[in-house]
Every structure is written in structure tokens, then in C-alpha cells.
Amino acid sequence: MTKRVYLETTIVSYLAAQPSRDLVVAANQELTREWWERRRGDFDIYVSQLVLDEAGEGDPVAAERRLSLLQDLPQVPVTEEATVLAQSIVEAGLMPRKAATDALHVALATAHELDILLTWNCRHLANAELVGDVARHVRSHEMEPPIICTPAELMGV
């Protein structure tokens, strides 16, 4: 069975960005491009209107590059179930209010039963100090959370 992946905005941002002078960011950009070219086809990829809205922000030329990469990907709808779960993640203190959008990404992937949430956001999403607590919280709502990881963890064996 093909794994279903929720593509969070940082992935398309890394794909569309000019190469960074920061060596770590540049390496992550290259890894993201490699994943996109070599592994993307191995998964069913989904986004949400939230991703499209975030990708459309900022510099118009960069936003157009990001949105063109996302244009053919199916969208999962923002549901009441996901909104309630995201609010509960924030209210439980698992993510700060300023990261409510990140909580909604988790909730959308969860509510739509997607297997993986792919991100470079290691502050609030792919963070080993948080992911276990978030997963336990989601399970306390009788839902199964996605695996949250970076493209480095999804390159295959």
C-alpha cells in the first residue's frame, strides 16, 4: 500500500528557494530536491489550503514558483475535526499559540489519516522533544497521528 504524505509548506519553500549561503540550509535544500526528484513518485502526496495560503505569501515571484510546484497535488479539506484537534494541541501547551498553524498541519494530516507529515520545521513539528507528547495527545483523542519527519528520513533504504 502506497504511503500517503502531507506536504508541509517548508518542503516546497526549500524546493523553490534560491540556494542558501548557509551550508546546512543549502544541504537541506539539495536533499529536498533529491527527494522530490527520486522519491516523490513513491508516495501519494497531499496538501491543504493552509499550505497553499502559506506558499502564496511573500515575494510574488517566489510565491509563484512555490504554487506552481503544488498546483497538481490533491488537497485535504480543513475540517471542524482538524480545527478542534489543533486547538486542543495548543491548549494542552504542546505548541505555543504562535505555532497554531503548525498544530493545524498535524491535525489535518491526522484527521485525514495520512501516514506521514513531511516538513523541515524542526522547531514545532519534526522535533524529537515534542513529537512523542503530540502523538500521545492525538491518541488520547482516539486518532492515530502521522509520522512526522524530514526528507532526510524519507530517502529510502
Report on the architecture of this protein.
With 157 residues, this protein is an alpha/beta fold. The chain has one domain (4-154): Rossmann fold. Helices cover 50% and strands 11% of the residues. The longest helix is centred in the N-terminal third of the chain and has 16 residues, at 23-38. The chain is globular. The mean pLDDT is 96.
Specify the helix fraction band: 40-55%
Radius of gyration: 15 Å
Q: How are helices and strands ordered from N to C?
A: EHHEHHEHHEHE
Q: What's the β-strand tally?
A: 5
Top-tier CATH class: Alpha Beta
Structure annotation, total helices: 7
Shape verdict: globular
Q: Which SSEs are present, and which pair or pack?
A:
Elements: E1 4-7, H1 9-16, H2 23-38, E2 44-48, H3 49-55, H4 60-70, E3 75-76, H5 80-91, H6 100-111, E4 116-118, H7 128-140, E5 147-149
Parallel strand pairs: 1-2, 1-4, 2-3, 4-5
Helix pairs in contact: 1-4, 5-6
Summarize the entry for a quick read.
The chain has 157 residues and is α/β, with parallel strands linked by helices. Helix content is 50%, strand content 11%. A five-stranded parallel beta sheet has the order 3-2-1-4-5.
Keywords summarizing the entry:
157 residues; alpha/beta; Rossmann fold; five-stranded parallel beta sheet; 7 helices; 5 strands; 50% helix; globular
